[in-house]
Design a protein that fits this description.
By secondary structure, this protein is an alpha+beta fold. It contains twelve helices and 23 strands. It folds into two domains: about 1-15 and about 230-410, UDP-n-acetylglucosamine1-carboxyvinyl-transferase, Chain, CATH 3.65.10.10; about 20-225, UDP-n-acetylglucosamine1-carboxyvinyl-transferase, Chain. Bound molecules: uridine-diphosphate-N-acetylglucosamine (UD1). Uridine-diphosphate-N-acetylglucosamine (UD1) binds near residues 119 and 324. Uridine-diphosphate-N-acetylglucosamine (UD1) binds next to α1, α4 and α5.
C-alpha cells in the first residue's frame, strides 16, 4: 500500500489517542486463562490486535470485538495454534498460559518488527523454572506442563517487558505455587496487565516495582476492565507538534507518559498537563542528548520520532539506543529527505535540518510513523510505500492525521498474491 502525504503542514488541532497496543496484546493473550465471561474496553482497532484475536480464537477463546469492546468466553481450549502468529512478537505470550491450561502448547516462532535480534531466551528460561518443558523444533516451540514446584524464584537477566508479562500470566493459575520474579519490567503496560489479572481475582503483588510475586489461584472470575491510553501514540503526536511549532491538544492520556513529558520540558518544550490530556504549545527546543532504556527511562518506541525534534531544535542532538541494537532504519529514509542524520555504533547524531518531500519506504511500525510525520513537515509532497505497517499500531490514522492538519491519502492498494 502506498500513501501520499502533502507536506508543509503544521501539526496542530485536537486529537484523541486509543487504548495502548502494548496493553491490549498481553491482555488479549491472557484471555486464554479465563473461566467466566469478561468485557474489556478501549481495545484499539489495529492490525496487531486483529492478529492476536485470530490467534486466541484459534486456541478456542470465543471473542466478540466491536466498537473497541471485547467480550470473551472460553469453552474448549486447544494448545496448538498451527500456522497463525508468526507476524507479531507478542504471539509468544500464548505459549505458557496455554501449556498450563491444556498441558501442551505449540506455536510458531514469534515475528514482529525487524528491529534487532529479539531473542526469547528470558521467556523460555522462566517457563522452564515454572516446571514447563520446552522443545524447539524447526519453526515451532512446544511447551509441556505437568506440575510446577511449590516455590519458584526467577531473576531475569534484563527487565524484558514481554517476558515479565508472559511469566506473570503463566504463574497466575499455578495453584499451590508461589512465584517471585526479580529484575522485572515496570512499564505502565505491565502494570495494566497486572491490574487486569487482579481484577479477575489473581493474587499478584509488587506490579510496577522490579519484584513481582504471584500466588497461584484455582481459577479467575469475570470482570469489566478498561485498558490505559497509548503513551507511544500520544508521544508520536506530541513530538510531531513540537517539531512543527503547532498547538495540539492530545486527549486520552494519563500520567503514564510523565517521564517523556518531563524530559521534553527540560529541553525547552511547553507542555501543559491536564488530568486526562496534554496541550503542546510552540516552543524553542534546545539540542538534546538521551539514552533509551527500560521504564522509567526514555522509551525506545519513541526514539525514531525524536529525530524530528532534532531537526527543528537549536543545535545538534544525540540519541543512544540501548534496547534494540538495530532500530535505525528510519535514518536512511530521513536522509532521502535532506536530513543531516547519521548512525555511529548505537548512537544517532542529528543536526538541525530542513526536510524536502521524497519517495520513502516504511519498515517497522515506529519508523513508518516517523517518516509519515517527517513527510508532513517537509517542503513538498512525499510518497510512502509499505504504508500499511503503520496500521499495526495507529488506530484511525488517516482521520486523526486530518484532525492534526495533515493530509494523507492512500494512492495504491497492493493486490493479494495468491
Ligand atoms: C515490548 C513492546 C515493544 C517495545 C519493547 C521495549 C509489546 C507488544 N511490545 O516488546 O513495543 O519496544 O517492549 O520497551 O509490548 N530480550 C532478550 N531475550 C528475551 C526477551 C527480550 O534478549 O527473552 C531483549 C530483546 O532482544 C530486546 C530487549 O530485551 O533487546 C527488550 O525486549 P522486551 O522488553 O522483551 O521487548 P518486547 O516485549 O519484545
Amino acid at each position: 500500500m502506498k500513501a501520499k502525504i502533502r507536506g508543509n503542514s503544521k501539526i496542530e488541532g485536537e486529537v484523541s489517542v486509543g487504548g495502548a497496543k502494548n496493553s491490549a496484546l498481553p491482555v488479549l493473550a491472557s484471555l486464554t486463562l479465563i473461566s467466566k465471561e469478561v468485557l474489556i474496553e478501549k481495545i484499539p482497532d489495529i492490525s496487531d490486535v486483529a492478529e492476536m484475536i485470530s490467534m486466541i480464537r484459534a486456541a478456542g477463546v470465543s471473542v466478540n470485538f466491536t466498537k473497541n469492546k471485547v467480550t470473551a468466553r472460553v469453552s474448549n481450549l486447544n494448545g496448538e495454534i498451527k500456522d497463525l502468529g508468526s507476524k507479531i512478537r507478542a504471539s509468544i505470550l500464548l505459549l505458557g498460559p496455554l501449556a498450563v491450561r491444556t498441558g501442551r502448547s505449540r506455536i510458531l516462532y514469534p515475528g514482529g518488527c525487524q528491529i534487532g535480534e529479539r531473542p526469547i531466551d528470558i521467556h523460555l528460561e522462566g517457563l522452564r523454572k515454572l516446571g514447563i518443558d520446552i522443545k524447539e523444533e524447526g519453526d515451532f516451540i512446544e511447551a509441556n506442563f505437568v506440575k510446577s514446584p511449590r516455590n519458584v524464584k526467577i531473576e531475569m537477566r534484563f527487565p524484558s517487558v514481554g517476558a515479565t508479562e508472559h511469566l506473570m500470566m503463566t504463574s497466575v493459575l499455578l495453584k499451590g505455587t508461589t512465584v517471585e520474579i526479580s529484575n522485572c519490567a515496570r512499564e505502565p503496560e505491565v502494570v495494566d496487565l497486572g491490574r487486569f489479572l487482579i481484577s479477575m481475582g489473581a493474587r499478584i503483588s509488587g506490579i510496577g516495582t522490579d519484584r513481582i510475586r504471584i500466588d497461584g489461584v484455582e481459577n479467575l472470575d469475570s470482570t469489566i476492565y478498561s485498558i490505559i491510553g497509548d503513551r507511544i501514540e500520544a508521544g508520536t503526536y506530541m513530538i510531531g507538534a513540537l517539531s512543527t511549532g503547532g498547538t495540539l491538544k492530545i486527549n486520552g492520556i494519563g500520567n503514564e507518559i510523565d517521564n517523556v513529558v518531563n524530559f521534553l520540558k527540560k529541553i525547552g518544550s511547553k507542555i501543559e498537563v491536564l488530568p486526562n490530556s496534554l496541550v503542546i504549545y510552540p516552543s524553542n527546543v534546545k539540542g538534546f542528548h538521551f539514552m533509551t532504556g527500560p521504564y522509567p527511562e526514555f522509551p525506545t518506541d519513541l526514539q525514531p520520532q525524536m529525530a524530528l525534534l532534532g531537526f527543528s531544535s537549536e543545535g545538534p542532538s544525540e540519541i543512544v539506543e540501548r534496547v534494540f541494537e538495530s532500530r535505525f532504519k528510519h535514518v536512511e529514509e530521513l536522509k532521502k529527505m535532506g536530513a543531516d542524520i547519521s548512525v555511529d555504533g548505537n548512537k544517532i547524531n542529528i543536526k538541525p535540518s530542513k526536510l524536502h518531500g521524497a519517495m520513502l519506504v516504511g519498515n517497522d511500525l515506529r519508523e513508518t510513523a516517523t517518516i509519515t510525520f517527517a513527510a508532513a513537515m517537509a517542503d513538498g509532497p512525499s510518497e510512502i510505500d509499505k504504508f500499511e505497517i503503520i496500521f499495526r499500531g495507529y488506530e484511525n490514522l488517516l482521520e486523526k492525521l486530518k484532525d492534526m492538519g495533515i493530509f494523507a491519502e492512500i494512492i495504491q492498494i497492493d493486490r493479494e498474491v495468491s
